[in-house]
Amino acid sequence: MSSAPLPASIDDTAAALRAQGYVAQRALATATFLALRLQRPLFLEGEPGTGKTEIAKTLAAMLGRPLIRLQCYEGLDLAGAAYEWNYARQMLEIKLAEGQASREELSRDLFAPRFLIKRALLQAIDPANAVAPVLLIDELDRADEPFEAFLLEVLSDFQITIPELGLVKALTPPIVVITSNRTREIHDAVKRRCLYHWVDFPDAATELEILRLRVPEAPAALARQIVAFIQGLRRLDLYKLPGVAETIEWSRALLELNALVLDPATLHDTLGVLLKYQDDIARVQGSEAARLLEQLRVVEGG
């Protein structure tokens, strides 16, 4: 796979992202540009559904590089994130070598690279990579705090020390994007090794631009109503505010229903596309939904 050159400026970065369907506000485009140029990990924090994960996918497509994703979860450890030894194959090797090799030779051979199972982190810094990949460490806040300590070597020097083999270091550093939904605080030691950016919900104009790019078949009037309604929802005290991903998904759902405008019946039937908690749905249904729809009519009429 041949990779594309890095963008030469912030404007070039924003334009290249937009060409892939990702609308980045200038602060995010600046952080992305600097992360690429300085070869520093990009740490993106914010509410779910604000496009943090998507930017890693977009960078991979934009630069023509493979995407390696490490999805974090509670209990994630070295074996799941970096590497582990193929014990079944090692045991088979022991049985096959019985009586044919000395104990010292067998011990040395058992930890040869062919027995190593490479996970996401080791794949990303493998010196054999023809092209440095994009490494997405997604939802780091889901992993346990001790896992962050292991990440420090990877983020600082793009290397991993394997006791049985020695140091594995990237010839060309991967592009690293780390995301967090801030369900817990990430340790300062991790953040210091990264360029940090808080990804907020987009304003109405930006969200409308995103919608026109991602769902171009949506009628202009419906797209405006969708964005205005969701912007209104985000001003409510809901447990889980709808993100841009929900905006796009709801738009596509409304198109499948042949909706041309938002009306109370369609809204009632499709709130589950936008909101994922019953308490939020119950709060919005009825008077809140009617109030938001009335505001739309007033704005459009005015």
Model description:
It is a single chain. The protein has 302 residues and is of the alpha/beta class. It folds into 3 domains: 10-75 and 121-199, P-loop containing nucleotide triphosphate hydrolases (Rossmann fold), CATH 3.40.50; 83-118, no CATH class; 204-301. 51% of the residues lie in helices and 13% in strands. It has helices at 10-19, 26-38, 52-63, 78-81, 87-97, 103-110, 120-124, 145-157, 188-192, 204-214, 220-233, 244-256, 264-274, 278-301, and strands spanning 42-46, 67-71, 83-85, 116-118, 134-138, 159-162, 166-169, 175-180, 195-199. The protein has a 5-stranded parallel β-sheet. A two-stranded antiparallel ribbon has the order 3-4. It has a two-stranded antiparallel ribbon with strand order 6-7. A hairpin with a 3-residue loop joins strand 6 and strand 7. Helix 1 (10-19) crosses helix 2 (26-38) and helix 13 (264-274) packs across helix 14.
